[in-house]
Structure formats: C-alpha cells, structure tokens
Amino acid sequence: MAFIELKNICKQYKGNPKNSVTDFSLDIDEGEFIAFVGPSGCGKSTTLRMIAGFEDITSGELYIDGRKVNEVKPADRSIAMVFQNYALYPHMSVEKNISYGLKNMKVPADQIKEKTDWAIRILGLEEYRKRKPKNLSGGQRQRVALGRAIVKDSKVFLMDEPLSNLDAKLRVSMRNEISQLHKKLKNTTIYVTHDQVEAMTMADRIVLMKDGIVQQVGKPMELYEHPDNIFVAGFIGSPQMNFFHCKVQDGQLVFPDGAKYQLTNEQNHKLAGRSEVVMGIRGEDIKFSDLYIQQHPENIMDALITNIEVMGNENNLYFEIGGQQTVARVDKYEVCQEGDTRQFVFNPDKMHFFDSKTERTIR
Amino acid sequence: MKKKTQTLMGMAFFGPALVLLSVFLFLPMILTLIFSFTDFFALNPSLTHFTGLDNYFEVFADPDFRLAFLNTVKFVLLIVPLQCGGALGLAMLINKVAYCKKYFKVAFFIPVVMSLAVVSNLWIQIYSPEGILNAILGFFHIPAQPFIHSASQALPSIALMSVWQGMGYQMIIFLGALQGINPALYEAAELDHVTPWQKFRDITLPEIKPICIFVLITVTIGAFRMLVQPMIMTGGGPSMSTYTVVYDIYQTGTVNWEIGLASTMAIIFAFFVMILTAIQNKVSADQDEESSKNKKAFWKRFARTAAADQEADYVEQTTEA
Amino acid sequence: MLNKQQKRKQIVLTALMIAVSLLFLFPVIWLIANSFKSDAQITADMNSLSAFLPPALSENFFKNYTDVLFGTKFARYVGNTLLYAFIVIVLGIIVNGLAGYALAKIKFPGREKWMMIIMLLMIVPMETIITIHFLFIAKVGLLNTVVGYVLPGIVNPFNIYLFRQTFISLPDDVWEAAQLDHCSPMRYFFTMVLPMAKSVVATVAVFTFLGVWNDYLWPSLVFTSGDLLTAQIGLNAITANDNTTTGMTLAVITMVTIPVILIYSFFSKQIVEGVMTTGGKEG
C-alpha cells in the first residue's frame, strides 16, 4: 500500500464556482521524492496545503501511512514543511528555531540538544547557531527552515517553492543540497515548484498540473520523452519544444507555408486517417550535422539563421520553418553566423504528434 | 483550517474584548439612550418612570443647561479661531525660519505634554491676583486684573490658557502640511509676481485645506468637551460663568445622581460631537466623490475618518516632541 | 544658500521668534525657577526679572521638592499611578491585542461587521458614558478600589484597531510553521505575535501610560480616599491643602510633568515608526 494516498481530491473555494483542484489522485511510496510542478495558479500549492492540513479538502480522501487524515490537525499528521518565505521565527536564534517544535512536543532536553546539534551540523550552520534570522543570508535562512523540518522525525516533508526567493546560483547549489539531504534521510518528500528544471533534476516522479488538473505523472525522462499532451511537452524542457500546425497529405506533412516533409512508414501508420496534426520537435532533435543529413536525404530543409544565442556549452539557433519561429539547440562547435543558410533534418524518432483538437499525444 | 476551529479560535481571542466592550461601551451607550427617556434617580431607582421626551424639554428649558450650553459655545468661539489661527501662524513662521527650527518646535510643544490638571494648577498661580501675570501687567502700568476670580474674565482666561496649552499640537500638524507643499508652486508664483498675501491665499491655503478642516473640527470638538480646566480652576464659577455642558453632565449624573437627566444631556452632547464628525467626513467625502455614491462606503469612511483622526493624533503627538 | 540680505532677514526673524517663544513659555520658565524658592522669595522676586531666574544654590535649593516627597503622600500617588498604568498596559495589550489578532487573522463569522463596529466606537465621546461607568462601579461597590478604576479602561477600540492594522501584515506562514511545531494559538500569540509586533506593543504601552498618567476625570470619580489617588488627583489634593506652600505646589507640578517629558523624549521616535508602519495599510 502506498505511503501517501490522495483519492479524488477536489478543492473549491467559497464563492468560486470553479474548482481550484479537480479530482487529484496519486499514490506516493515511502521515501519517494515527488515534485508538483506547473504554472502559477495551477493548484499545486493548494494541493500541498491540503496535504499539510492548512486547507480543507472539499471532497476526496487523503491517507498518510494508512490513516485517513482529512480531519486531522496539521500538527498531528507527522509532516514537516519548508515554506517559500522561510517562515522562521524572527525573534529566535537559529538554534531555538530548530528546537522549538521539539520543545513543544515535550522531548527530553538531552535529546533536543542531540537532534538540534545533528541538524545544525548536517546543514553546516555551526557558525550561525546563535544568530537571529535577520542576520542570515537567504540560503542560510532556507537551511534553518530545513533544519526545523528534519529534527522532528516527520514522515513527510512538504516543500513549497523553497528556492524561489534565492538567486540563480544559490538555487542550483541548494537544489543539490536538498537532493543530497533526501538521499541521506530518505523521507517522503513532496516538493512544489514552478521551475521545471528543479522538478526534473530533483524528483523521482513529477506531477505536472494545469488549471487544477493533473496533466501527467511520471519519471522526469518519461515526461520529457513521452509527454501526454501539448501542455506537458511545452512545459518540460528548455528551450521550449517547437510546435507546428501541419496538414497530412499523401504520406507527407505539409507545413503552413507549403513546405513538405516525407513521413516514415511508422509515422504514416500512426497518423493514418488524420488530415491535421500538431507536430512537435525539441531543439536538440533538429539536426544540422552531415551525419544526420546523409541518413535522411529525402527530408533536407533549409534554415535562414536569424539569431544565434551563444550559451557557452551549446548554441541556440533561431530560424523559420513553415513561416514559424523555430529554435534549434546545436553543439557549440556548430559554428554559423546570422544570415547563413544551413541544411537540417528532423530526427524522425523524436518527432511528437498531437491531435490538433484534443491536444493529446497520438500514440 | 476548519471553519469550526476558526470560529472557536475567534471567540477565544475576541471574547475578552467583546465582554468588556459590551459592559463598558455597548451597554452604557444603550442605557444612556434608555435613561434619557426616564426620570431615573440613582439614589431611588424604584421610582423610575418612563417619561418620553420630557427630559429633553426639561433640559432645554433648564436655565443651568442653557447657560452651560451658552458658555460652551463661548469657549468654542474663543478657542477655535485663536488656537487654529495661532497654530497656523506659528507653523508658517517656523517653516520660514532657518535657524533653531528644532528648538521652536519643541518650545511651542512643551505645554501640550503637560496634563490638564498640571496646566490648570499652574495657571491658578499665574492668574492669581498677586501672581506673575499681574506683575507683568504692572510693569507695563496696566492695573491688576481679577482673571479667573471674576465672572466676566474667568471664561476668556480659561479659554486663553487652553489655547496656550493646545496650540503646539496643531502647530506641528500644520507644519507637517506646510512642509508637504511642493516648493515648485511657490517658485512658479514668484515668476508671476504675486504678493505674499496672494501666495498664502492661492497656494498655501488650498494646499493645506484638508488639514485645516481636520484641525478646525478636532479643536472644535476639544473645546466642546471643556470640563477639567473649569472644574479645577473655578468650580464652574464665578456665578457659573465657566459652567460647561460636560460639567453639567458630570454634576447632574455623578454628584446629584440624576442619571435620567444626565443621560439626556449626554445624548444631546454626543449628538453635537457626532454632527461635527459627520461634517468633517462630508468634507473629506466631497474631495473624493467616486466612493461617496453608495451608502455603505459612506459609513465605512465615516468610521475610517475617525480612525484616521486618532491615528494622525498619535503620529503628530509624537512627531516632534 | 542664503545671500546677505536673506541672512539679515533670517536673523531678525529668528530673534523675533525667540522673543515670542520666551513670552510663550513664561509660565513654564516661571514654574521651574520658582519651584526652588520659598514663598517669601517668590513674592519678593515677583516684580523683578529674577522672577524668571532660579535662586542661588543653597542647602535649601531642593527644599520644596523634599517637602513634597517626604511631607506629603506624593511619592505614594506616583507609585499608585505607576501600578495602575502597569495593570492597564498589561491587560490592555492582552485584551486589545487578542481582539486585534482575531480581527486581522482569524476568519470567524461576523469579523467584518465587528471591524466596522470597532471603528464606529472610536468616535463615541467618553463623556457620554462616563456617568454610566460611574453608576456601574458604584453599584457593584468598587468605588475606591483599584479594580473599579482599572476595569473600564482596559478595552480600547482604538488600540484594537491599531493592533489589527499591524497584525494583518504579519506573514501567515509563520503561524503555519508554528502549528506544525505544536504551538497552540494562544501560545503563538504571546510568544510569537507580540514579539514580532513589538513596536506596536510599545506604542500602545506608551499611550496607555500617558492616558493613565494624565487622566483626571475618571480617577477623580472613582477615588475619594487619600491612599489610592493617582498623581494627577494627588496633585490637586496636595495643592488644595492649606499647609502646602506655593513653592511646594510648583515643585509638585514640575514633578508630575517629568515622567511625561521623559516618555516623550525617549519613545517618540520608536512610536512614530510603529504608527507609520501600521498606518496607511488599511485593507
């Protein structure tokens, strides 16, 4: 049986006819690191807060460790939470912030000391233990917040966009720290973020949400390689996947400006009976190298490069296909200049096809 | 959070205040209103009758109350122009002066921090027939004045003292308003060759108009509440020349125990104070018309102006002390 | 920068203003100068400029002050007032603070209505209901008791409003974190909310103190016996006593004012800060 079980959970706020979260069902195993990701207002935080107990569950059932907790107070759900704005107690020192919960739980003093020391050590806060939050940097504050969560032996860690207030560099290193911590402590963790990179890099599984509805649940690479619909395909990955509204005629894909692309047998089979599809392809699957071009001579297309973004490790090339702005990710050794015309092919194995009406992936 | 928990928590937090508010604000307000229609006499409550509007007729016919009301109006008419005008004048002078600004602000504010009892007791000495004020007058060959010991001079003497005490407070408020005027307005006026009087009338006054109204009303209400000074200095005399409305409420209610009558007076008094607040609100309502259209907004702002007044009081009282 | 002509104008203006301020302050100057003098000397100095100058230092310099402190109950009255102020401050912060927190953060039914009522209550003149307060306190036999004096003054709509304005901007997530740390709402209020909002607590405390210290009408109604009087009523009682000299009167007036001056000079900055941060955030 799953460790955390969400069964058809809905959230509707008073005076709002629309659900904020609709029919959310998910089983989470013990020790798993789950990321809820989606654009702002997608219901990911609301779901997290329902699991924490700060929001009422309108309908549906929530089980933690086999116990139904819909009506259980937040404090009694055996959860710990890390908040976006740290939510540290401003007038307490680092040490006191971390040990406050243990004190309230009437844990014996020697154990409090031991646990607090352990948390402070593990988070590298030794120098700051007597400091107040206002004298700490953002990263240190977030570490204190983590410390407050880990001392309590909670079964579940809930993290609500914990890194969004940090600058980009710190975010990367804290991301790594949280991952390491999870590997060490193996607590079941639910991590809410709007940043797909965080979700991709940290989570065992990702729950991608939009408008209160779960779009897809799966391992990071599953979402990346096999998105269920256009939204997932577009949300995961950077730069965004390129999408083209195309017609299917005589085994060919016809772009809006009339450019044609010869479909493979396999693709034709998949698209049988359809006249219109949305084709999606990631930037790295648009190939400029001779090797690929030789392999797919039937579908060579020309790109007039309009802009180049030099990223250092790779380059982003901008050009138009079928009258539409397209971005391709190429190796940094793939040198070209604005105004160049280059030949390219699509990697046919990595082309995604979506129903143009339902926006769902055609399988 | 569960709704029930919220309700329980709300009651636990708001409860103590609610109990005290009920006992010491709502109940007294309701009782005052009810008693104002009765002849309730606290020393013999069993004889209480409902008397309708009798009290109101009686109060308005009562020569003591009429005198008290007249005296109160006199206080208001003396204090309001002197205190507001004096405060504005001082503020403009201090705003102009380049040296010792801080000293002037503190100097004129000193009487404000003194309590009514302190000021009253001090000025009993100042106004004493052989006191320092008569000594100063003597220096200028002006004959000694009886001040608070004469029916004709007591009221103006107390009014003057109140102005002296209160002026610094409004001075600070005006000063804040004056410093808030965009200096570019005066620079523009300079180019147009305006006279100082025109500058005052066409720039300063319009710019500080809202503050002026606020000060006028608060000073009026303050003067209307005159009680402690005559109570300590003259006991309402001589010959009731400094007897005020609030003094009459106090005397009738807590000395003579005629709660019914005192309540009627209190209602009349509260009525006037509320009217003043309403006027102030109306004026500020005219300044932003958009929200004055619906009634609820009116009441909300009515309450909010009152709140803002007191808040401003808090700020101003402490700004430059 | 001022040019020469402006400078001359400024000097004249400043001199004029100094003269006006001295004239304005003559009662205070006279008060302080003469509070160190014997009555005979006060009268003797009356018609000369030395009326505004303190006497030469002598062993009798502080005689009026020591006479007041050791010859009257003034010290006791001051002690009383400090005690009453302390009680009203503590209870006021608890009662009004809790209510302000409820109005700011707890979604109990009728919250908006109560907020309106609190705001409307702020405009009710106290003089209207003081008779009834007196009646209540007299009827339950609490005249001449500390409880009778303190009770009506604890709840204060304006302080509720002020607390509410501050608390509304406190972050909700700290309360949520505290919940997960097994902190009860009441505990949270006392150990977290009040320390987090300490500037408004200071504001309320200072103004409650000034209110109690300067109050005249209510203590004059409640206290009739000599031992429980507040400083202001005591001041009146002392000055009304025939044995009190003019010099002693002036000394006692000066002493009653000293705490207020101290409060103003020490707390003004903090209070203004507190009010500024809470004000103008009306939601």
Q: Unreliable segments of chain B (pLDDT under 50, ≥5 consecutive)?
A: 288-299, 312-321
Q: Helix segment count of chain B?
A: 14
Q: Termini of chain B, distance in Å?
A: 45 Å
> How many strands, what sense, and barrel or not for the largest sheet of chain B?
none
Number of domains of chain B: 1
Give the second-level CATH assignment, the architecture of the largest domain in chain C: Orthogonal Bundle
Q: What structural category arises from helix and sheet content of chain B?
A: mainly alpha
| Structural classification of chain C | mainly alpha
- What is the third-level CATH name, the topology of chain B? MetI-like fold
| CATH topology value of the largest domain in chain C | MetI-like fold
Under the CATH scheme, which class of the largest domain in chain C?
Mainly Alpha
Alpha carbon gyration radius of chain C: 24 Å
Q: Overall pLDDT of chain C, averaged?
A: 87
Tell me the CATH superfamily of the largest domain in chain C. MetI-like
Shape of chain B: globular
Strand content of chain C: under 5%
- How much helix is in the residues of chain C? over 70%
Labels describing this entry:
heterotrimer, A: 363 residues, alpha+beta, OB fold (Dihydrolipoamide Acetyltransferase, E2P), five-stranded antiparallel β-sheet, 10 helices, 21 strands, 26% helix, 31% strand, elongated, C: 283 residues, mainly alpha, MetI-like fold, 15 helices, 72% helix, 0% strand, disordered C terminus
What does this structure look like?
The complex is a heterotrimer of chains A (363), B (321) and C (283). In chain A, a hairpin with a 2-residue loop joins strand 18 (314-321) and strand 19 (324-331). Chain A has helices at residues 44-52, 94-104, 109-122, 138-150, 168-185, 196-202, 220-225, 230-235, 265-270, 290-295, and strands at 4-11, 21-28, 33-37, 59-64, 67-68, 79-82, 156-160, 188-193, 205-210, 213-218, 242-249, 252-254, 260-262, 276-281, 286-287, 301-304, 307-310, 314-321, 324-331, 341-346, 352-355. Chain A has a domain at 242-354: RNA polymerase II/Efflux pump adaptor protein, barrel-sandwich hybrid domain (OB fold (Dihydrolipoamide Acetyltransferase, E2P)). In chain A, helix 2 crosses helix 3 (109-122) and helix 2 (94-104) packs parallel to helix 4 (138-150). Chain A has 363 residues and is of the alpha+beta class. By secondary structure, chain B is an all-alpha fold. Chain B has helices at residues 3-35, 54-61, 63-96, 101-113, 116-126, 132-139, 154-179, 183-191, 196-207, 209-224, 228-233, 245-255, 259-287, 295-319. Residues 288-299 and 312-321 of chain B have low confidence and may be disordered. Chain C has 283 residues and is mainly alpha-helical. In chain C, helix 5 (74-105) packs across helix 9 (157-167), helix 5 packs antiparallel against helix 14 and helix 12 runs antiparallel to helix 15. Chain C is globular, with a radius of gyration of 24 Å. The interface between B and C is large, with 93 and 95 residues.
